[in-house]
Every structure is written in structure tokens, then in C-alpha cells.
From TrEMBL:
Residues 60-455 form the FAD dependent oxidoreductase domain. This is FAD dependent oxidoreductase. PANTHER family: DEPENDENT OXIDOREDUCTASE, PUTATIVE-RELATED, SARCOSINE DEHYDROGENASE-RELATED. InterPro entries: FAD-dep_OxRdtase, FAD/NAD-bd_sf. GO terms for cellular component: cytoplasm.
């Protein structure tokens, strides 16, 4: 069971805004030293515990976080700069955050978000976000092929079947897709709408009001990311070091006059293994971002996801090479228990073993809005065990739970990633050398790779504005209007 560090004072319904504010702005903490064991990481990569005998001292770039975003930034800086030195700092084992604990779905959500995006940002920016996320998925698949990791990562190109469990959810989705197709006729055909009869008769899924197919994929992200890190270490042995088990505790900025080298290495990262000086600091810490950046707390907050692996004993045919699934329902909330059903289940199947990878949240809010992946919410696991057979029209509770674990996502106040240079108002430090790519709202496989690439290029002074959605940036207007603590509270409130 999880500790309750909010105190009973905040547990009454009347205190909801205070309670929610306290939830979203609390320190996510450092990644917990003993996380739950993710099925994807059961066989650790040879580099899982890699580190230099001594922490290097002076580096051009220090990247904090070794998930897919940290990888994308490191790869871009190394490939695009002829001589830059790069160190990746990781609190735990290599790729032990969300990337190593997720649902393995390569799928975009921009279609169902389109209506909101268009209303908030206009049709052009909303269309760019659709393009960016679908292009990011293609780039994931290209990366897997380039690094000869198709078999290793069990990558599948397939269709995702989005299933809507209520008529209201289905209607909202159809309206969003109709607006997408009206604003951007070139997107016609991206989504195929299905009625409820087709969903059950052709796809064997029960209890829906309708569904939709879209191009997608599945992957074993831990195997991909660790393999590419290993290749980078081999290619750039004198320019890249990876320091696992090296949490960064604090960051200090020195003014150029402080010492002769301060103008080159203006930042000191204080780690568990001593200090490291760097010219540029890149935050790829996603749900944990607020720990090193207190002024970002609430603008990004951690959100804990629960995953299971379940064995259906061949009761359902193996569709792992053709279909993955998402199940959408209106969020449910019990004010007495503060238990939130988040509104989404995600499901993929291993084409090799037939095992189902099934995730979703149904747990007390304070367990979900949390950076603690050292325990799994029992409520969520029970919910996932009960729900899965029913989607396939079975009432069989004997499907074996092979594995369950949790992981920490980064949710942003306005639902969009943050990619860019951090202003002093968010770092609390002087200096212009801190950058961030984070806040992927549970859709990292559709955003992180290109966000990391874009960030790397921006750091090197390149213009990425033709393809990075402007709404992902850290402009003053966003920080004033939408990326705010009240925004985060409202987003959570809309689920209650
Ligand atoms: C249960 C679950 C299911 C998900 N399912 C999907 C899915 O099916 N499809 C999808 O697209 N997305 C999914 N996601 C989201 C996706 O995994 C993330 O958006 C993505 O992996 C984010 O990558 P990242 O590199 O930014 O962050 P992470 O992979 O979390 O990497 C951040 C790293 O930073 C390290 N770190 C943090 N603070 C410090 C510090 N102070 N010092 C040193 N190191 C530090 C962490 O240990 C971590 O390894 C899921 C996430 C979870 C948790």
C-alpha cells in the first residue's frame, strides 16, 4: 500500500480545489530507488547499470534522463555536432522510467483531440499536431529498422481499433474526425469509422457504441532504446558517457565572472556521485521534471499508470500482428473514496506469446497523481483483471495475471508537450542554458522521438519551426494563458 503524504485535512470533498492544487504541485521527488518490476525489463540490457569509473567533470551537454526523449536528444547532438561531449545521467538503471514501463503502443491521439486543439489553437496548428504525431510514429518505425531492431523489439505495423464504450464518447469522436477532415481534406481516410455491429461481428469486441481504425504499431520500447544507446556508445566512445545510478539532486548556475571556466561550463549538476559541470543542461525527466524545476510543478505533474500482462490461455485468437486496441469511456469518480477511473484502457497482444499487455487507471487520485512507482495500485490491477475478458465477450476470471507494474507519465496543464529553452522564470536560475522536452501526456511513442530531435536541433541553433508545432513551445502566451496551475486543476476537475 502507498503512503498518504497529503494528510487527512485534504480528504474532504469541500476542499477539492485545495486538494487538487496540492496534488498537482507537490514535488514528484526523485525516481524511487526500488520501482516495481516492469515485464519489459525482466531481462536487463547489458548496459542497464553502466557508468564511468569516475563521473566525468566538464561536458558540453548534460542530459538528465535515459528514456526515449533523452536518447533522441543525445543522438541528435552527437550526430549533428562534430565534437560535442555528451553525458546522459540516469537516476536508476538505463531506460527505467516510463519508456521502460509503458504499454508498447505506437499510436497517436491527435484525431480524438482535434476538435479541442482546433478550438484552442486554430486549424493550422491543430493540423500540424496531427502531422507531427503520425510522422513521429513513422520515424519510430524507421529508427527500429535502421538499427535492425524489428525482431528484437517485436515491432508490428498494424491498425489500432479505438472502441467507444458509450454513445456520447463515440459521438464526440466522430465530430472531431469530421472537423479534422473538413479542415484538412488530405486527412480523409486516416480514420475509418465503424458501427457497433461491425466492432462486435468483425472484430469480436463486445459492449461498444462504435469504433474506429487508424494506422498504428506496437513495440518493446526498452529493447529499442537500450539497443540504440549501445550503438551510440560504440560509435562515439570518446564523446558519450552514460551514467546510470546517478540521480541529479540539484543544479547550480555560476555567473561567467565566478571562475575562468564558468563561461564554458556554467552549470554544476550535483549528483549522488559528485559534481558534474556542463555548458548546457537538458531536462528529459518527464513526470519528474518538477523535482529539479520547482517552478514547473503543476505545469507538469506526474501521473502514474498501471500495466498488466495477462495470459488468456488461447481463449482468444492471437491478433497481435494486425490489431491493437484502445477503450474509451467517460471518466468515473467517487468523491468518498476519491477513486478515479481515468477513461481509457489500452491493449496490445504479443504476436509471439499471445500475452495481452493491458493498462489503465482506476485508483485513488493521490495514488495516480504521484511520482511513486514503487507500488502498484491494487485497485487498478483488479480493475484490469476484471475488464479484459469482458471486452472479448468472456466471463472468465481465470485469465492468468503474468505481471503487473506501475510507471510515471508526465501530464502537462494544457495537454501538450513542452519542447524548448527554459526561461529563468521556470528554472529559478540565471543563464539560458537549460532546455526541456517533457509532458507527453501518456503519448510518448507519438511525440518523444521527434520532440527530442527538435530540441537537439534547437540547442544547436537550427530552425525547426516548420515541423515542431508552435503550441509545444514555451512562449510567454502559453505560460500566461494555458500552461498554468489552474489549467492543471481544471483538467483534473473535468474528470471528477
Ligand atoms: C504505464 C504506462 C503506460 C504507457 N503506455 C504508453 C503507450 O502505450 N504508448 C505511448 O505512446 N506512451 C505510453 N506511455 C507514456 C510513454 O511511456 C512516455 O510518454 C515516454 O516514455 C516518455 O519518455 P521520456 O524519455 O520523456 O521519459 P521517461 O522514459 O520517464 O524517462 C525519464 C528518465 O529520467 C530519469 N530521471 C528523472 N529524474 C531524474 C534525476 N533527477 N536524475 C537522474 N535521472 C532522472 C528517470 O529515472 C527516467 O528514466 C505510458 C507510460 C506509462 C507509465
Amino acid at each position: 500500500m502507498a503512503p498518504n503524504d497529503l494528510g487527512n485535512h485534504y480528504r474532504t470533498h469541500a476542499d477539492e480545489p485545495t486538494y487538487l492544487s496540492k496534488l498537482v504541485t507537490r514535488d514528484p521527488g526523485l525516481p524511487r530507488p526500488k520501482p516495481t518490476e516492469s515485464y519489459w525489463q525482466q531481462i536487463p540490457h547489458a548496459l542497464a547499470n553502466t557508468q564511468s569509473p569516475n563521473l566525468p567533470t566538464d561536458r558540453d551537454f548534460a542530459i538528465i534522463g535515459s528514456g526515449i526523449t533523452g536518447l533522441a536528444v543525445a543522438k541528435t547532438l552527437l550526430e549533428r555536432h562534430p565534437s560535442a561531449t555528451v553525458t546522459v545521467l540516469e537516476a536508476r538503471t538505463l531506460c527505467s522510467g516510463a519508456t521502460g514501463r509503458n504499454g508498447g503502443q505506437m499510436a497517436a491521439n491527435a484525431g480524438e483531440q482535434y476538435m479541442n486543439l482546433a478550438e484552442t489553437h486554430g486549424a493550422e496548428t491543430a493540423g500540424k499536431i496531427v502531422d507531427f504525431t503520425f510522422r513521429n510514429l513513422e520515424k519510430m518505425q524507421e529508427l527500429i529498422e535502421e538499427y535492425d531492431a524489428v525482431e528484437l523489439s517485436e515491432m508490428q505495423r498494424l491498425q489500432k481499433l479505438r472502441v467507444f464504450l458509450t454513445q456520447g464518447k463515440f459521438d464526440d469522436f466522430k465530430k472531431s474526425i469530421a472537423r479534422l477532415e473538413r479542415d484538412h481534406p488530405d486527412k480523409k481516410g486516416l480514420y475509418t469509422i465503424l458501427d457497433a455491429d461491425t466492432v462486435v461481428e468483425k472484430y469480436g469486441i463486445h459492449g461498444s457504441s462504435g469504433g474506429a481504425l487508424l494506422p498504428a504499431g506496437t513495440v518493446w520500447p526498452y529493447r529499442l532504446v537500450t539497443k540504440v544507446f549501445a550503438a551510440l556508445l560504440e560509435r562515439y566512445p570518446n564523446r558519450l558517457t552514460i551514467e546510470t545510478h546517478t540521480p541529479v539532486n540539484t543544479i547550480e548556475h555560476l555567473s561567467p565572472s565566478a571562475s575562468p571556466t564558468a563561461s564554458t561550463y556554467a552549470y554544476t549538476l550535483h549528483t549522488s556521485r559528485g559534481p558534474l559541470r556542463a555548458g548546457t543542461v537538458v531536462h528529459c525527466t518527464n513526470g519528474y521534471s518538477g523535482h529539479l524545476l520547482p517552478d514547473l510543478r503543476g505545469l507538469i505533474h506526474p501521473f502514474k499508470g498501471t500495466m498488466t500482462v495477462q495470459d488468456a490461455h488461447n481463449a482468444v485468437s492471437n491478433q497481435g500482428s494486425t490489431i491493437s486496441w484502445g477503450f474509451h469511456y467517460p471518466p468515473t469518480y467517487n468523491p468518498e473514496t476519491k477513486r478515479l477511473g481515468y477513461g481509457l484502457f489500452y491493449l496490445a497482444q504479443s504476436a509471439k506469446t499471445g500475452y495481452f499487455y493491458f493498462g489503465g487507471e482506476n485508483a485513488p487520485l493521490e495514488y495516480s497523481v504521484s511520482g511513486d512507482d514503487s507500488f502498484v495500485a491494487e485497485e487498478s490491477v483488479a480493475h484490469l483483471e476484471n475488464a479484459l475478458p469482458r471486452f472479448f465477450g468472456k466471463d472468465d476470471r481465470s485469465w492468468r495475471l503474468v505481471s503487473s507494474w506501475s510507471g510515471i507519465m508526465g501530464y502537462s496543464a494544457d495537454g501538450l508537450p513542452l519542447v524548448g529553452r527554459l526561461p529563468s522564470s521556470l528554472t529559478g536560475r540565471e543563464g539560458e542554458g537549460e532546455w526541456i522536452a517533457a509532458g507527453f501526456n501518456g503519448y510518448g511513442m507519438a511525440n518523444s522521438l521527434m520532440s527530442g530531435e527538435a530540441l537537439g536541433l534547437m540547442i544547436l541553433g537550427e530552425d525547426v519551426s516548420s515541423w515542431l508545432p508552435i503550441a509545444y513551445g514555451l512562449g510567454e502566451e502559453r505560460l500566461r494563458e494555458t500552461l498554468t496551475v489552474p489549467g492543471a486543476i481544471n483538467a483534473l476537475k473535468s474528470k471528477l
